[in-house]
Amino acid sequence: MKKALCVILVVIITALSGTAFAGSEERYVREEAARRNMKLISQEEAVRIARERIGSQNVRVKDADLEDEDNYWNGSDFRPIWSLELRAGRDEYDVDVDAVTGQILKFKIDD
To answer: Which helix (H) or strand (E) is 84 found in, with range?
Structure first.
């Protein structure tokens, strides 16, 4: 009984710590963008841009994260992006949208 309770507690703590980390990354990106006087587009705007590219308004958001993505070279050490996982019909889309310019940086279809 005690072993099962310990396992459950470990699972809960692990899940909560992952959620806290995700929130802390978004908070860091927002604070750093403000410090650099960058105006970020909203999650809703990033999804709208992705919907236009997909060509459908019937798009469900599976996940949306505001991240500092250093895989995209733009001449600086900081690039905020919206990393989106979307679903339209049977297709799933991974879309990265520059959180400052609204430019689509990655558009991948997983069918």
So the answer is: strand 80-88
